[in-house]
User: Fold Acetyl-coenzyme A synthetase from Sulfitobacter albidus.
Amino acid sequence: MAETAKTYPPSDDMAACAHVDASRYDAMYAASLNDADAFWAEQAGRIDWIKKPTQIKDVDFTLGNVSINWYADGQLNVSANCIDRHLETRGDQTAIIWEPDSPDEAAQHISYRDLHAGTCKMANILRDLGVGKGDRVIIYLPMIPEAAYAMLACARIGAIHSIVFAGFSPDALAARVQGSDAKVVITADEAPRGGRNTPLKANADKALANCDASVKCLTVRRTGGDVAWDDARDVDYTALAKEASDTCEPAVMDAEDPLFILYTSGSTGMPKGVVHTTGGYLVYAALTHETTFDYKDGDIYWCTADVGWVTGHSYIVYGPLANGATTLMFEGVPTYPDASRFWQVCEKHKVNQFYTAPTALRALMGQGNDFVTKCDLSDLRILGTVGEPINPEAWNWYNEVVGGGRCPIVDTWWQTETGGHLMTPLPGAHAMKPGSAMKPFFGVQPVILEPTTAEVITENPAEGVLCIADSWPGQMRTVWGDHERFEKTYFSDYPGYYFTGDGAKRDADGDYWITGRVDDVINVSGHRMGTAEVESALVAHPKVAESAVVGYPHDIKGQGIYCYVTLMGGEAPSDALRKELETWVRSEIGPIAKPDLIQWAPGLPKTRSGKIMRRILRKIAENDYGALGDTSTLADPSVVDDLIENRMNR
Ligand code: 6R9
Assistant:
């Protein structure tokens, strides 16, 4: 990201009113490092414990021995924290504002009391299906209130949920049902999005055909559309919810019992199940939600993410509800019915905090300012971004056109693995620099290492790989079913540190700038994807012999998917085959993985030992083939000329 000279200090008003101003940040940050146990023991007090923890932090980052425990002897229930404890004081307050896909359908205001009833009903239905403590439940739902009920219902009975984004294909769903050995899949008949209905139940049917016959399918009637029904396996949520009891005793959970698994992409192999646990995760989600967005009682807060991603977990459901907030849940897309939808929803519900992804901003920016300026956005106070680096043009547009120059922008850098924000400016404490994630959150110790020597760079400015020196309560605990993979992925390249997979710069002022992934993970419209996943989908096609996939700069998506494909002997390239491969990848993984560019590659640049030299492929995809660097170790340097000659991104 280009560093711009301009900085935007917090306004006097913001500094005076915010939970955290500059001096409080300095004091709290110092306290969080000087005596982590004392700091996090105090922060534990923001949630309700059945048994208050006496052990706070117990962490080892040593390879072969990695173990991460927070509040280990504490006991609590997440759903009781997000619902029950608010009933007395805010039973009638809106917990969730639900805004449907179509503006013609009425929004719903779900009070904390309604949320309690909905969650308990779902919990009782799951219990009746035989789901208990520690069992896994897959949630494959649109952005409807039942998605929140389902998450909180699992938490209530101690089951572990794993949400699969509703845009994922039946194959991806099946892999997650099998990988987590789930007992139940919760889905809906159809998912309306942007005026079109995705047949979710039909997708689930296809997925379940390849799963153990004992897996039950619980279906929410969202549209009332026709679905196939198998009496032995299918259960109708909407019918059962009418009769189900609306009370359900929350289970007593240990702080380190798993709360959820969320599959995410890495640089090698298939997606891994990131495991988050109960106590530390909730404390961290609640604290970051309140601090980063300066959330205050009565505010209307909107995060536009999908609950299928970690942002939806921490900042639509768990963080806001633990804080007794009013959180908006939106079923639709930013451009339906037109590019004004986000801003109309902000106006309609008087949104105070608005949190979205740079890719959405870039797409909307291109549609012109009228879509924004015709709406009354005077209630907006804080803006946020997440998912990828934000370019200064998009930042400036967000600041000026959406925020009217009055709203701080929190550029929150974090990951599925981190559970909550690790770096962000705080609205009342820090100056903002467009594109900079600025400062570490409490308890977070970022370090920049020289990539090859693994030496810590202490002076400023610095550039290298980004690691974190010590644990924070929201950190993932393991990879589901594969602790060795957890250690290898995050703790082996830079021993003693958590390796983020991102590169970063620290400027002369000591502020952080994320430069993007340093591994084979690409970020497409804010969605994380392993190039290996797309490659394995491509080579599963009978006509494909080999493929290599890299990212390239894309104006709207941030990164696009560039595929080099070598066909089987005797197969001829054609536009029809290109289309067929695009559709193939879509159906293997999901629409978000659809290739942007496919180049026919008679050969791929390989070393003599057979390793594909991705560095070269990346350069060609970036249309920067003048700077290929050393190609002398290639087995056949001539393949490079052909690839350059026929490059797709000109
Ligand atoms: C929360 C989330 C994580 C990766 C991360 C980084 C990129 C996220 C960012 C950002 C620059 C930001 N990323 N936020 N890069 N600035 N504010 O997005 O989780 O889907 O796991 O992606 O996204 O590369 O490593 P996840």
